[in-house]
Design a protein that fits this description.
The chain is globular, with a radius of gyration of 16 Å. The protein has a single domain, classed as CBS-domain (Roll). The strands form two sheets. The protein has a three-stranded mixed beta sheet. It is built from seven helices and five strands; from the N terminus they run ααβαββαααββα. With 136 residues, it is an alpha+beta fold. Strand 1, helix 3 and strand 2 form a beta-alpha-beta unit.
């Protein structure tokens, strides 16, 4: 029974468990404004908008704020999002099986990845999404 539950999760796809609410921020916003947006929207990361269609997206996470602003004692009102974001992003396809997403997260050391359908970002997949999808 437990083997079946884990197998179902391993073969589920990113689109099956991703969070569909994606919140965006511009890279030239202050980290203070971005923190306010994260709190207001109840999210742990923000996708940083591209400057041009040829540019890549970035991401700012709570970990970025803690490790790159709070820990070194920087003022979040004087730091811009683009200074602490991660760019370019590791993205996953909506059809990628969770076992491969988990492997990718483990190998790259990331905790979340935008889900990109080839045209637009359609969600965010996190290690929490994968964890809570396990049926026990």
């Amino acid at each position: 029974m437990e083997e079946k539950a884990l197998k179902e999760v391993r073969f589920a796809k990113a689109a099956d468990v991703m969070t569909k609410k994606v919140v965006y921020v511009d890279g030239n916003e202050t980290v203070a404004n971005a923190i306010g947006l994260m709190k207001e929207m109840g999210v742990s990361s923000l996708v940083v908008n591209r400057r041009t269609p040829e540019d890549t997206w970035g991401i700012m996470t709570r970990k970025d704020v803690v490790s790159k602003v709070v820990s070194p004692g920087r003022d979040p009102h004087g730091v811009l999002v683009f200074e602490i974001m991660t760019k370019p992003l590791v993205m996953v396809s909506p059809d990628l099986e969770l076992k491969y997403c988990a492997r990718l997260f483990n190998q790259t050391g990331i905790r979340r990845a935008p889900v990109f359908d080839g045209k637009e970002i359609v969600g965010i997949l996190s290690n929490s999404n994968i964890f809570f999808s396990i049926k026990v």
